[in-house]
Amino acid sequence: MSTVYNFCAGPAMLPAPVLAKAQQELLDWQGLGVSVMEVSHRGAPFIELATQSEKDLRALMNIPDNYKVLFMHGGGRGQFAAVVNNFLGDNGRALYLLSGQWSTSAAEEAVRLVGEDAIDTLNIVEKVDGLNNVVLPSLQGDAGQYRYVHYCPNETVDGIEIFDTLDSSWPIVADMSSTIMSREIDVSKFAVIYAGAQKNIGPSGLTLVIVREDMLALPVVHPSSIMDYRIAAAKDSMFNTPPTFAWYLAAEVFKWLLNAGGVAAMEKTNIAKAELLYHCIDSLPFYKNGVATENRSRMNVTFQLADESLDKAFLKEAEAQGLVALKGHRIVGGMRASIYNAMPLEGVQKLVEFMTAFAAKNS
Ligand code: PMP
């Protein structure tokens, strides 16, 4: 089989060695004669996996001791609701910063649950010279005004990433679904970080939540037990049956990341990959990207062909060369190359070669 480079935004490609190991262990995990999918989540082998995976994640992200790590269900959208249910007790209010599709969806879910009056929104993207540019406000005010400020450091659909740390006197809740572990961050600057697993962590079905302990003392509205952070924390993410196979794969991804030099090493490669691709886009008039340089996503590189009637041919010819899932999100169109941690530099090099040749042929 020839090499396929998968640029899907999520579920995204997983590291090949992780999949190979999973394949090898599928029928016999740890000499038990059965797969990891078929054992109790309360038995010693799985508990050991769970404990080690948390340890590895804490090491990878340098998570301080006063944070709980929760392995939950429901994906990013599950957390859109869980955050509201966990923190906006009676009369609690929150501020949502809007920078693209996913932060807007998070705000819409919050409004759906607690009503417009409890949710303030602030658009933080401005067009400068036709490019999307993020302007981060300094958010200072009365402690009682907002229970939290929510934002999305990487907008998967729009290809907009916010690298600066948000300055806020209110607790910061961040949807890191598509940027987690792609670069080093200071966890202590956040009250809550959540991420659906299907980009940089593992397969869909698992959702990570990293929550500062003091947040768990806030009033509760009426979260369903399954989405209650306090219950998840008290039960070590085993209140009910967790998505065990997804957790197992995530645990293997954490080991792979540690072996590869951790998040700092990933960041270095991710910068190189993104620079290579954006350089190709910028140097050929055949392609364009609509995001200001400092807010260009390192994980989701969006670009348009100058002549969109060539979109179909671009996708077809790319696929024939093993470069798959480059179609942009249906809402914004164009192309999108998602280049998460598992995408090797060679994949981006191959894409750039293809893009250069396609532009030369069709210009
Ligand atoms: N937030 C972000 C930043 C995302 O990219 C996505 C999915 N692509 C979601 C939330 C929604 O995640 P899910 O499909 O797991 O609910």
Automatic annotation (TrEMBL):
Pathway(s) annotated for this protein in UniProt: Amino-acid biosynthesis; L-serine biosynthesis; L-serine from 3-phospho-D-glycerate: step 2/3; Cofactor biosynthesis; pyridoxine 5'-phosphate biosynthesis; pyridoxine 5'-phosphate from D-erythrose 4-phosphate: step 3/5
Chief localisation class: cytoplasm
Chain ranges of the Aminotransferase class V domain: 4-351
Keyword set includes Amino-acid biosynthesis: yes
Cofactor: pyridoxal 5'-phosphate
NCBIfam families in UniProt: PRK05355.1, serC_1
Identification of the protein by name: Phosphoserine aminotransferase
Organism: Shewanella avicenniae
